[in-house]
Amino acid sequence: MWGFVNTFNFYTADKESYVAGGFNQKLMWKNYPVCPNCAKTLERGKEYINKNLLFKFCTFDYYIIPELIVQKDELLTQVLKRMKRYQNFSLQEQPASLIENTEEKILKELSLESNNVNFNFLFFKESNSAFKILLFLQEIAPTRLKFLIESKDIVDKRDYGYNIFEEIKTKKDFSIKFDFSFKFIREFFPNNKSDGNFDKYFLSILNNIFIGKKIPFEFLLKRFMEKIRNEFLNKDSIEQIALKSYKIVLYLDEIKILERRIGMKSNDGDFENFFEKHSIFDDNLKKALFLEGVLVKKLLNIQYQKKNSTPFMSRLNSLKIDEKIAKRLLPEIINKLEEYDSNYYIDIETAIGKYMLNADFHKYSIDELSYYFTLGYVLEKYFYGTTGDSMQQIPLNDSKGQFE
Which DSSP string do the residues of 282-324 spell out, in sequence order? Predict the structure, then answer.
């Protein structure tokens, strides 16, 4: 028996804790006993999976290892041939205009396999010849993958009113699409110098999605609002990042793993047709904050038109909206609109007041309150006032003078 076979180098012989019976390398075979012929088999196996079963997922390397429920060599051969084709697709450089993301494409293909095979997903990292397993998802059935992909299609095709997820054209004529992608989650949980290392959290979310485990909404909101506030304070447009975060919320809610507070529904407002299409707005306070975000953006558009600056931005407390600020903003906004002879939004103001009458702020965190406000802020362009609402929008990528 050999004790130093390092096909996958997951241990070392120079540390006492790895050596059975104490620091005696002669006993290494007790830790990882491998016969010479088996060592050759392991090397051939590693060569095969690196060539045929290695994939990329949001910058991570991972293996997809099929596991047959009924052992049939012919069936295994067929599955491996198809996976070789998927692997070629995964490792190819895809054009930015590709509608379907590579990660979702692979899962969609795997979901078409029969129930005679399950899949093991092994995410790993190799550093200095060491092989570290980051996440191991075992026995994921094609039916589970099919459910995840079909849920994505449902969320992408559902009518949310006003076509709020329409493509955005940038100044460089580049289209930004909002079909759900796992890359959206990675944007909020990246690994880079400016944001830090969130690999552990991203993989944890991925694990919960695959196995159907609940994800606390508050956990996501913390990162959502950190990213949104950072772009807001840097005078960047927050529309893209906010819409991506909302698509994540809608997807996780669709697959029934978003753990969030459920409010008391009411259907007595002028904007209920919109709210009925959005399951997270199930509480009067959430609706009030959303509409307040709409209203404040209306005011900022008017200020930009009349003053070429948006001084009211400083009243938003860097998008940290608590009960005190939420209640302070409404009369201040109305006062400013009257000052500019541009109060075209009596219906929105009335609805905010009505929703706030019996609102319970205490059960929601500042991040959650701020998030509903932010969604209204970025979706303002889909809501109109009664008359005269033709104010110029603040340019998406030109916030010059906002804080003057």
Answer: -SHHHHHHHHHHHHHHHHHHHHHHHHSS-GGGGGGGGG---HH
Q: What string of DSSP letters covers 117-174?
A: EEEEEEEEEEETTEEEEEEEEEEE-HHHHHHHHHHHHHHHHS--STTTT--EE-TTS-
Give tens-digit pLDDT for 341-399: 999 999 999 999 999 988 889 989 999 999 999 999 999 988 876 545 554 444 433 33
Report how far residue 369's alpha carbon sits from residue 324's, in angstroms, rounded to the nearest whole number: 11
Residue by residue, DSSP assigns 337-350 as HHHTT----HHHHH
- Both tokens of residue 150? 């079909």
At 79, the amino acid letter reads: V
Coil/strand/helix, residue 86: helix
Q: Rounded CA gap, 217 and 260, in Å?
A: 5
Q: How many angstroms separate the Cα of 122 from the Cα of each of 8, 81, 275?
A: 13, 19, 40
| pTM listed for this prediction | 0.86
What distance in Å separates the CA atoms of residue 303 and residue 31, rounded to the nearest whole number?
A: 72
Q: Are 106 and 86 in contact (CB under 8 A)?
A: yes
Task: Classify residue 179 by its DSSP letter.
Answer: S
In this predicted model, what pLDDT tens digit does every residue of 111-147 receive, in sequence order?
988 888 999 999 999 887 788 999 999 999 999 999 9
Across-strand partners of 67? 118
